[in-house]
């Protein structure tokens, strides 16, 4: 059995959909952002502010490594930048079936709200760049990497429940 891992941009709905998938598969749901926050004892925005992005990425990598190597099969939602790391992709290739949840920038803008909890959208120079532009740039940079996931789920026309259904439809691949 393999882990089921949800990949994609901030705001696409990885956690909401992941919870539904976990319920359906009767597996634990794990969110790498939440585990990093618990380990560090502070929100991601503060980790970025106090220690910088590189430190956050290291914590994220170690968190993901631990889950995929040590735990029974889970449904794991990873932070939007995690899959960009070749080391994370290598770890997941061995241990997981990965799903890229895809949505248009216009939809992401609506779903992220103010973006206030997401430092990549608000801190430093990014604070001056309009949210939509920042998301568009990130998506353009990341899309070629996200599409290396095993499967792509186009979420645009789907409710969270329908997206979860689409993922569990691949059950024979990861069970
Ligand atoms: C990030 C996405 C966030 C979080 C951090 C960086 C990114 O997670 O890991 O703010 O680089 O896209 P979500 O995708 O769960 O919002």
Which characteristics define this entry?
10 helices, alpha/beta, 175 residues, binds shikimate-3-phosphate, globular
Describe the structure.
The structure is a single chain. The chain contains ten helices and five strands; from the N terminus they run βαβαααβαβαααβαα. The chain is α/β, with parallel strands linked by helices. Strands 2-3-1-4-5 form a five-stranded parallel beta sheet. The longest helix has 18 residues, at 53-70. Shikimate-3-phosphate (S3P) is lined by residues 10, 14, 33, 44, 79-81, 118-120.
Bound ions, cofactors and other small molecules, one mention each = shikimate-3-phosphate
Rounded to an integer, what's the Rg over CA atoms? 15 Å
Distinct helical segment count? 10
Mean pLDDT: 95
Secondary-structure blueprint of this entry?
Blueprint (H helix, E strand, L loop, with lengths): L2 E5 L6 H12 L3 E3 H9 L3 H8 L1 H18 L4 E3 L8 H10 E7 L2 H8 L6 H4 L8 H16 L4 E4 L5 H9 L2 H4 L1
Parallel strand pairs: 1-3, 1-4, 2-3, 4-5
Helix pairs in contact: 1-9, 2-4, 3-4, 4-5, 6-8
Summarize it.
By secondary structure, the chain is an alpha/beta fold. The chain has helices at 14-25, 32-40, 44-51, 53-70, 86-95, 105-112, 119-122, 131-146, 160-168, 171-174; strands spanning 3-7, 29-31, 75-77, 96-102, 151-154.
């Amino acid at each position: 059995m393999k882990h089921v891992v949800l990949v994609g941009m901030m705001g696409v709905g990885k956690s909401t959909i992941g919870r539904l998938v976990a319920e359906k598969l009767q597996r634990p749901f794990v969110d790498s952002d939440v585990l990093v926050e618990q380990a560090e004892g502070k929100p991601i925005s503060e980790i970025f502010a106090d220690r910088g992005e590189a430190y956050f990425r290291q914590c994220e990598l170690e968190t993901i490594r631990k889950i995929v190597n040590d735990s029974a099969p889970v449904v794991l939602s990873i932070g939007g930048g995690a899959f960009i790391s070749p080391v994370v992709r290598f770890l997941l290739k061995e241990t997981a079936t990965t799903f890229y949840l895809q949505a248009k920038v216009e939809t992401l803008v609506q779903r992220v709200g103010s973006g206030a909890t997401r430092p990549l959208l608000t801190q430093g120079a990014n604070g001056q760049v309009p949210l939509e532009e920042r998301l568009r740039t990130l998506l353009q940079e990341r899309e070629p990497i996200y599409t290396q996931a095993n499967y792509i789920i186009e979420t645009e026309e789907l409710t969270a429940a329908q997206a979860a259904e689409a993922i569990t439809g691949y059950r024979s691949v990861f069970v």
